[in-house]
Amino acid sequence: MLQRVILDKRDFKLKTVFFQWEWMLVLLFILVNVMNANLSPYYLDYDNLRDATMGFLDKAFIVLPMVFVMILADIDISVASIVALSSVVMAVLYNSGVPMVLAILISLAVGTLAGLINGLLIVKFKELSAVIVTLITMILYRGIAYIILEDQASGNFPAWFKFFGWGYIGGVPFILIAFVMLAILFGIVLHKTTFGRTVYAIGSNPTASMFSGVQVNRVKLIVFTLTGLMSAVTAVFLTSKMGSTRPNVANMYELEVIAMVVLGGISTAGGKGKMIGAIIAVFLVGLLRYGLGLINVAAQTQLIIIGALLIVSVLIANLKRRKS
Amino acid sequence: MKKLLSAVLVMVMSLSLLAGCGSATKDNASQGGNTSAEPGKQPSETAKPADNGSGAKKKFAIVFKNTGNPYGEKMMEGYKNAIEELGGEVIMKAPDQPTAEAQIQIIEELIAQKVDAIAIAANDPDALQPALTKAMDRGIKVLSLDSAVNAKSRMVHINQADPERIGRVEIQAIYDMIGGKGDIAVLSATSQATNQNTWIEWMKKELQDPKYKDMKLVKVAYGDDLRDKSVSETEGLLKSFPNLKGIIAPTTVGIAAAGKVLTDKGLKGKVQLTGLGLPSEMAEYIESGVCQWMYLWNPIDVGYLAGYAADNLVKGSITGKVGDKFNAGRLGDKEVVQDGEGTQVMLGDPFKFDAKNIGEWKKVY
């Protein structure tokens, strides 16, 4: 059931040249699961697998809007700093007497605002690429977090706040339910709406889109603002999981998120890729790391394996493009 | 597409289930085989799965702050020595980043492996509480060493030395080195490192003595136990405080970085340095006089003591309450004492390293 997007024709031809990326991910996913199950007797245990998702899903919320950003042929490397800033704001507000619910809402607003600023800078200064703009704001936002909290920790949240990071609904982790629901929502927006089609169109040819009357600036603004909001959502889950926060939380998250999106088959050149690919990639990387952890592979070796996986995936993606 | 995918996911799960059952019935000898299709996949020394039978070796895990820290490696080595003497199985882990979230991930992996004990040097005293509480609820014995977690997250803490002595001795040393006059600064690890923070509190208490009225603590800088950050923080201190006379670095990474900076800038004798360092790393600076003397204990012994404490917790011969006594192998008998809200076991007094004895110690660790 392929939707008729602008690229449909080219996609169709590709399929005859090379089998589809998403299917390869599914195969890889099967491979990882079989491998893990064979390497560790503890892997295939419902409780363990269920709880493992709580470990890697916090950053997955940022993957969803990042798919949009990268289909636009842009990139946002300030997401981890937005996580830190939202998290720190939430903790400081709560500890200065603001009710927790309000502190969470304000922290979501802070993330949204940070995303909006990214978007504004990117559409106002066309000569600067998104990577430069978000590099600047990456330093800026984390800097603000450091100014607010000065290298200290802040926590002591109310007991119910633990629910985000550790709670279950009917035996299923709340974070998993939240992620699946949001993933379906983002997937529908990307693949079933005019907005989604516009994102693809801008990514594959921004100039043509502009001349055909597409609101390029407005679309970019919305996408970057959404990315900020979802970074703040990640901040809520991550802060809840740790029960306290510091300005250096979510270290290197931006790279992990971008790695998952790239592995999901979203081309960095824009205009290509599917949401489902990125979602499979989230579980693929998460479960691969968990499996490696279960057999106590050293942290550096884990990085090497994930890096090798990425190199191979990027190479294959480029081969595909060359063939087309 | 969605229908297809869900069908595939169901298939995956059932396939992996089958694979799991298959491997469970297979002889465990095949497990060590190289079944991986991934490059660089080395089954670690603990990859041999233990049977869940009663005759299985007990599994003792140790988690350090991050990889690539020589002090941490020595500590894990000591833990390993103790557990091997006791006939258990050791799992040594450390994340690549010195963060609490990375340690939470590791704790989850250890819970899933059903280890018997977790000894942890924490990156944050409070953030590990939910994960460690979960471990204790599953019957895993939890203790911290070197850098403590809060009292609710552990059964006992292994303290390398009396924090009060460490804090006071550091100030007395810098007082002697700079002649009791001038600005001093502290170069610590992360701002959340419980042990460093406790020592710095004691340094501040010692400084209240009228004897130190001409000395001023101008800043506590944080190098995060990362070499490059510690170097830049030291350079920052020298720039911001031109009248700086002494630096105390109560962390092995920090003191080595500061020693390097002072040597490179030719500040020997102008800015004094002391703190806690590894003899093998600091020998050149102690011999050159950049750092006249420093203190430490033996990290191997810290890990070794933790290993024996973990074993006794698992056996049930101690529970971590005040007054519990146990034998710690070559370290002799140890007792659990009060530590704020929790309890701890002390290793001993800090040991002084100077030009006279560094030659023999640099070969040891």
Number of helices of chain B: 11
Please list the strands of the largest sheet of chain A in the order they lie side by side: 1-4
CATH 2nd-level architecture of the largest domain in chain B: 3-Layer(aba) Sandwich
> Judging from the principal axes of the Cα atoms, what is the shape of chain B?
elongated
Membrane topology (chain A): Multi-pass membrane protein
Main location (chain A): membrane
Keywords (chain A): Cell inner membrane, Cell membrane, Membrane, Transmembrane, Transmembrane helix, Transport
Pfam family, one (chain A): BPD_transp_2
Tag the structure with descriptive keywords.
heterodimer; A: 324 residues; mainly alpha; two-stranded antiparallel sheet; 15 helices; 4 strands; 73% helix; disordered N terminus; B: 365 residues; alpha/beta; Rossmann fold; 2 domains; eight-stranded mixed beta sheet; four-stranded parallel beta sheet; 11 helices; 14 strands; 41% helix; 19% strand
Overview of the molecule:
The complex is a heterodimer of chains A (324) and B (365). Chain A is mostly helical and 324 residues long. Chain A has a domain at 57-250. Chain A has 15 helices and four strands. In chain A, helix 4 (60-71) packs across helix 13 and helix 5 (79-95) crosses helix 12 (216-242). The longest helix of chain A is centred in the C-terminal third of the chain and has 27 residues, at 216-242. With 365 residues, chain B is α/β, with parallel strands linked by helices. Chain B folds into two domains: 56-160 and 299-347, 3-Layer(aba) Sandwich (Rossmann fold), CATH 3.40.50.2300; 163-296, Response regulator (Rossmann fold). Chain B is 41% helix and 19% strand. Chain B is built from eleven helices and 14 strands. Chain B has helices spanning 2-25, 70-85, 100-112, 129-137, 163-178, 194-207, 227-240, 252-264, 279-288, 299-315, 358-361, and strands at residues 59-63, 89-93, 117-120, 141-145, 156-159, 182-188, 215-222, 244-249, 272-275, 293-296, 325-327, 333-339, 342-346, 351-354. In chain B, the strands form three sheets. Chain B has an eight-stranded mixed β-sheet with strand order 2-1-3-4-5-13-12-11, sandwiched between helices. In chain B, strands 7-6-8-9 form a four-stranded parallel β-sheet. Chain B has a two-stranded antiparallel sheet with strand order 10-14. At the A-B interface, helix 2, helix 3, helix 12, helix 14 and helix 15 of A face helix 1, strand 2 and helix 3 of B.
